[in-house]
Design brief:
This protein has 139 residues and is mainly alpha-helical. Helix content is 74%, strand content 0%. It has eight helices and no strands. α5 packs across α8 and α6 packs antiparallel against α7. The chain is globular and about 45 Å long. The relative contact order is 0.16.
Length: 139
């Protein structure tokens, strides 16, 4: 619902966007998140793997900054290019009954969707740090 509300009104075909989100987003998320938000890869991209191991559980401020940085990374042009290529290929569209329509949807939505999702991630970082951390940091 978040993308339907925030993304679709911005696009040329809001109704088509809404249909595509409702049709494909669960599959897109299931394909994309394990690849692009895999914890080892993310901490490697952020340069935080060794830091976390040395200092243990992050503080609230460190957690918020880290989540916000993940939001920045997933909204970057380079990462969006990687995500689009992955989704249009065998990562997602190649597994759907209509790869062409799927690819068109990916091209029309993902470049605008990822910065929105990254912004929401940063905006809700304190909530995520509280509810998703093992120690309830930021609660």
């Amino acid at each position: 619902e978040l993308l339907v509300a925030l993304l679709c009104p911005q696009l040329e075909d809001p109704a088509g966007c809404e249909t595509g989100i409702r049709t494909w987003w669960a599959g897109i998320g299931a394909a994309m998140y394990p690849v692009f938000l895999e914890p080892g890869a993310v901490c490697g991209e952020l340069g935080n793997c060794k830091v976390k191991a040395m200092v243990g559980e992050p503080t609230c401020d460190e957690c918020i900054a880290g989540v916000a940085l993940v939001g920045t990374v997933i909204g970057s042009d380079a990462k969006i290019t990687d995500i689009v290529a992955f989704l249009k290929g065998d990562g997602f569209c190649g597994t759907t009954p209509d790869a062409g329509a799927c690819g068109g949807f990916i091209d029309a939505t993902i470049p605008a969707a990822m910065p929105i999702l990254g912004g929401v991630l940063a905006e809700r970082a304190p909530e995520y740090c509280c509810t998703l951390s093992s120690s309830g940091v930021c609660c």
